[in-house]
Queue: 4 jobs
Job 1
Amino acid sequence: MAPIAAVRGTHDILPAQAHAWEWLHRTHERVAGGFGYRPVETPVLEHTELFERGVGAGTDVVDKEMYTFTDAGGRSLTLRPEGTAGVVRAVMAAHLLDATRPLRLRYAGPMFRRERPQKGRHRQFHQLGIECLGDPAPHLDVEVIEVGVRFLEAVGLHGVSIQVNSLGDRDDRARFRAALVAHYTPLRDRLCEDCRRRLAVNPLRLLDCKRDADLAEGAPRLADLLGAASERHFAEVLAGLEDAGIASTRNHRLVRGLDYYCHTTFELWHTSLRGAQNALAGGGRYDGLAEELGFPGTPGVGYAIGMERLLSLLAEEGAGPASLPAAAAVVCSLAPAQGLAAAACARGLRAAGVATVLDAADRKLGAKLRAAASLGARWAVLVGEVEVATGAVALKDLATQEQETVPAGRLAARLRGGVEDAAG
Ligand code: HAM
């Protein structure tokens, strides 16, 4: 029988990466938490309609990439392809804005898109995100971008460029859509198959097609069609970014792949991410989303960062956290007869706050010491016949290979001292 493999486009976070993974979560928590963003969790499973109406029929995400199925009750359900629509639904349904406005939330979790798997593109991937709801003020667009930038600084990533654009309001986009259709319709026969479809259903997306990039030359620019209010909003965002010392690049072709955006959109790019995977993070304002979902109109702005892309960049740059030992000490019984004594010794160490692994296996001491070293432990505590008889243990420093005898009652203090010395 063939062994069962992981589903294509999914991956395991094995212990070697899991430490960095948890560290990313903690760092995001600390940085976003420092701006007042509180945690929220929403279900992975949502009604398909949430994304059809929120993200938009006509987007690649909704039309081609969702994992959608009909459950036994005949309901169409979808594994969430992104987190924003679910957060807005949750906030609006629970009337959270009645008490706090703006409401600052952060989240982390898996998202699912049936894309062609390749480096930096998975079918189950993970995002760290924030959403700021209930206030249309441009300084909050700046804040959201700043949280992302400060987070990437905190994890030690260099070489990030901030691409920004404005999609204006609904009227601006309607004018822009008409201008794009007028530009592209005569070029229809030269468009790729996807873009011919986009011309009919989602003309804005024509601008970020990689294959038809040459046809975008000379295309109308939304910047030239923005109304006065949209211009003012965007000018305030740019001024706010400058004031925060955040350098950004205006990218007229940045339209983003989800339909809910208006006004500010942005992406954080990294020089070593290429092609379709160049965005490490994306976000923007979505003042019309709540209404699309059937709730009262409520402004919002947020971002999501791809954890897999970020981790692989950090690994390439040699950044990231130092690896952590699984435990400070491994207590080894020298023979099965000392198994219980070794277990009691390990229990005592843990109770005294020393992370301890018990190795009571019936195998040679050499194998136990190699296993202890592979866990990154500093100490091996050897419990043999003599030790049990004398009430002492043999303590081996795995870094220096020095060994000493320590009375059992003084062991925890000795190890804690060692751990503290090592922490320096
Ligand atoms: P998005 O641009 O679709 O935005 O995704 C954000 C980030 O998720 C991307 O920049 C990328 O790092 C990561 N990502 C997306 N698809 C994949 C994939 N197939 N494999 C690996 N990583 C991927 C959103 O999802 C919006 N909800 C962001 C947002 C929040 N806008 C406002 N608030």
Job 2
Amino acid sequence: MTLSSAPGKVYLFGEHAVVYGYPAIPCAIERRAFVRVTPRDDSRIRVVAEDLTLDGFTVEYTGGTTGQPDVDVRPELVEAAMGYVDHAISEARDAIGVTDVGFDVTIQSDIPLGAGLGSSAAVTVAAIDAATRSMGTPLELSELAERAYRTEHAVQDGQASRADTFCSTMGGVVRVQDDDCRTIDAPGLPFVVGFDGGAGETGELVSAVRALRDEYGFAAETIEAIGHLVDAGNAALAENDLAEVGRLMSFNHGLLSALGVSSRSLDEMYWAAREGGAHGAKLTGAGGGGCIVALDTDGGAITALEATPGCEQTFRADLASEGVRVEEP
Ligand code: MEV
């Protein structure tokens, strides 16, 4: 039996624009998905998932048939999570050159599904790592990141960048532009996350932004503006200028809002964090619902978010300097 974990992430800058070849800067956070893999005597895949959201649920399935979770999570999200596991195991088999090895796969995650914290990337990365290790051939991190990207790309109908999977594999702060992916130095970043308890569907949101970009020149320009803003953010990080990083995050939120991927609760949490004294704030990930991330040095944003009716959870998120890792079973 092999147990691997991989971290979730927040986006400092650049989600959505990264899909069109602009840079993005995601940061790994200490919220992890744990995937335990045990080889079977047959070639079937059996998945047991626990605590895939903060509420938690269990789903058992064999092959491509999804069970019915007994919780308040949209079935599409559960199916999507299972789709990531299916593809991840195929990538692991392909990497080792076997087709007929089956696995029992158990997932535990404290990263809410579809909330912008990179749950699917973390599950995918940890699953490929655990499966390849259990077959005796751990992958180099670069190959692991590439195979995890292929998994997301396939499950999200060709609409994924390398940002989430590279960040979850490597940990730390990363800059991703097409296939140019690297870790970068960054100052201590006092992240606070506000979670509205909801979720967005990444594939649908990426498609909606693409449609807007195809129809309106202003949307294409907005996406380009996000790209420029990421470069400015990169420079502010290099200068250790938290105030400027925060200001640019707030600009980035406004631009994402213009692209239609924010929501009332995300906007309310964004304003609460800013009025609470954060350096800046923005939605993180695909949007539609889920999380905002704020840079908050003195705790004022936490207090403000805790008092915001649409905010179900508030927590500090430490940067995860370590990406995927093998755990003691
Ligand atoms: C989703 O976490 C981030 C998006 O930019 C999609 C992607 O990069 O694959 C919206």
Job 3
Amino acid sequence: MKSRIRLLKIRGEEEKRLDDLVASEAPITIKANGQRIASLLATPSYLSELACGFLASLGLIENFSDISSINALDGEVDVKGDIREGKELLLTSGCGKGLISHPERINRVNGNFSISPSLILKLISEFQLRSSGFKETGCLHSAAISFSDKILDLKEDIGRHNAIDKVIGGLFLKKEEFSDKAILTSGRITSEIVIKAMNVGIPMIISRSSSTDLAISLADKAGITLVGFARGKRMNVYTHSERIKSEVRSQKSEVRSLAERIRELCKKKNAIILSHNYQPGEVQDVADFLGDSLDLSRRAKETSAEIIVFCGVHFMAEIAKILSPEKTVLMPDINAGCPLADMINGEELKRLKEEHPDAIVVSYVNTSALIKAETDYCCTSANGLSVINSLPKDKEIIFTPDKWLGDYIARKTKRELILWNGFCPTHLKIIKDGVLKAKEAHPNAEVIVHPECRRNVVLIADFVLGTGGMIKRVKESKNKEFIIGTEIGIIHRLKKENPDKIFYPATELAICPNMKLTTLEKVLWSLEDEVYKIELDPEIMKRARKSIERMLEITS
Ligand code: CIZ
């Protein structure tokens, strides 16, 4: 499993930004009969095989007949059956340190130094020369700490983690500063390596090997420069290239902040930046307009700008393109998809329509252009009730893809809807017990949740609103405290617009990993290179536009 990411490739004097493939990495939880046994970081494929192999290797299952069922969904594999109790697990020298960090714990690393590509290559060649254990045995990993043009310490170990822990421990014991150092490693850069650097505040990791997508995304957020494939005359800079000062780039002035450079480029290229309410705070702050997908698409339609950089997820940028096909619509990270939108495909919807040939199809905007083309009416979380209420009472209605939004609308409108079994994994992290605990801790707070939450969460809320509705409600409310049950990115905007009010997330875990793929550096690169362009089949766009325009007619 691979992801395509944009990086800076340096070969000798030449620098090029291009898309390249990196390995995928994801946290996977293995459960036995519903009980968590372990969380691993793994390539997210063959999860049933991974879980069975993991249990069998530990001696917790022996035969196929020990297993009654395997359920693999959204990064969790639950194996049910006759599974023995495990003893305390021993950390291996390999990948399995079971260290998983949630993005809400990401600390920003502030290392204010820069280094030239030629110095990186000099350090890495010295690193290799001094890794004598590897040369002698062929089975040791090495890690080093560098400062400026010197390698300060180098350690070898059978495990790449252990080698890194040893050099970090060395700095620690010597009470040395971390923020002006770099880690060099012989192993690949996975998320745990980035987490180690982040936890101690080391702003640069240099490897002879490559990096995974999760490590890149974590490093991006933590402000860490990741350099991979550093060998010979070449290297790939995956994140925070501002610390790599080549001759070419140091001639250009790099003193301006990323935000300043983005704003300047917008002016020069007649571009605007649209940001969804769930985007990281610094992206929201650099945007021309903030809103939900519908607000933003309206902005995209109305603007006289020629280029629109859409900071959100894929289906949102598609809506902007569908409504403004003549404009260039760019996404800073093309990997920012929507798992809910991916839960239904064109064939599945066509089959459902064949089973209910007279039904009207209403789809939430969180769908691909292809689904919208097969849909009669779109709706958003803000206008779902109005759309359904406007439809003839004697007609069957198919509602896709979000079953919880559908359930809410069905109860509110007293209409029976044929629901698709889709859901937003981020909103399902908000659970009833968590909301009740938050209410107990903050009894005066108003509880506002998104209709993508489960029914038992929606039923205990004071208000059930989409993000646009939440922004409005908080502004109008006399209340001072709010429990917010949606993706926590919205709290940045709520705080900024209501500095006298206090906000509590219903859970810190409600973070959409796709929304958080956008960074300021990617926004800048997107504007500079005019990538990634949203391109859609004109016929699909025409049909999809109809379902969006029908919604707009009802709600205008
Ligand atoms: O429509 C949107 O933008 C989504 C997905 C959520 C919301 O409520 O804003």
Job 4
Amino acid sequence: MRILGIETSCDETALSILECSGELSNPKFEIIDSVLLSQAKLHTPYGGVYPNLAKREHLKNLPILFEEMIKRHDMKEIDAIAVTQGPGLEPALWTGITFGKDLAEKYSKPLIPANHMEGHIISVLLGREAHINFPAIALLISGGHTQLVEVKSWGEYRVIGDTRDDAVGEAFDKVARIMGLPYPGGPEISKLAEEARSKKLEATNHPLPRPMLHSKDLDFSFSGLKTAVLYLVQKLGTLDETTKCLIAREFEDSVTEVIVTKTKKALEEIGANSLIVGGGVISNIHIRKELENLAESEGVSIYLPTTEASTDNALMIAAAGYISHLQNRTSETDFKAIGNLKL
Ligand code: KG4
Ligand code: ZN
């Protein structure tokens, strides 16, 4: 079946068409089309996503993207429409849901509510075929989320670890802001950290904490780490390039150590056969490399999304909609946006 996906949970407006086939035990996806407009640059002056601006931009961009995509296709090819119900910013989510409801009515198509986090998990099946050996652990690291999820099979999830405050991408963004770097801060911090590594600069003068590294649970906390960077920057005064690189490296090392340690614990507790990673933070080269090393030493297969599929997109929403359809999850046409929708 061919699904039109709609994503508006944060600062990307995206539409897609995905050909979905196979059963719940082995779903397959073929990318037909995908269009996206990122608002990230517009939010730069706010140092994060500004909900009402996001809403206004989605409202403006959705018809533009739809018109662009529909030039290449016919709504007759589409069997269903899937739209992000949550989690995300409610004013932003509503724009996609209302747009989806209007399309569904106009073209008489079923409308499927999709969970954004399920989208990030299934994003590893986009642009490639993979038969994942369950149980798996999914590590979801993005600007809005930091979760460890037990995946028993497609559609069967249990959140076993979560952040108590900031998400990991959010911590990157906030630390970047403290250091006077633009939003989104992840790529900026990671560039500086790589520079420190390539120049063999050691961060020993500026040690930062590893929050909750030894806690018994699988939860995370990044807000204290961000505050530690703030105090350090205040103490040091003006930062020269080398100091910036050192702080970035120490921050990235701290985040990586905590993520890798908790993921290892999760893999072992569940006896997982596979590690799935989703979310925009996986663009981080250091985190990616360390997770690949972890998978190798634990003897599990690792599945990472392509760059296109790792950041927010509508292909993963169409894919999550397909899983939902296969499971016959209740699909009232009159559903609401749920900002804190759970898996
Ligand atoms: O998944 P995503 O596109 O959007 C959300 O659902 O939040 O993730 C965006 C987040 C931002 O916080 C951004 O700073 C972070 O991913 N990010 C990175 C890197 N590239 C993007 N964080 C660390 N290192 C990177 N290279
Ligand atoms: Zn996301």
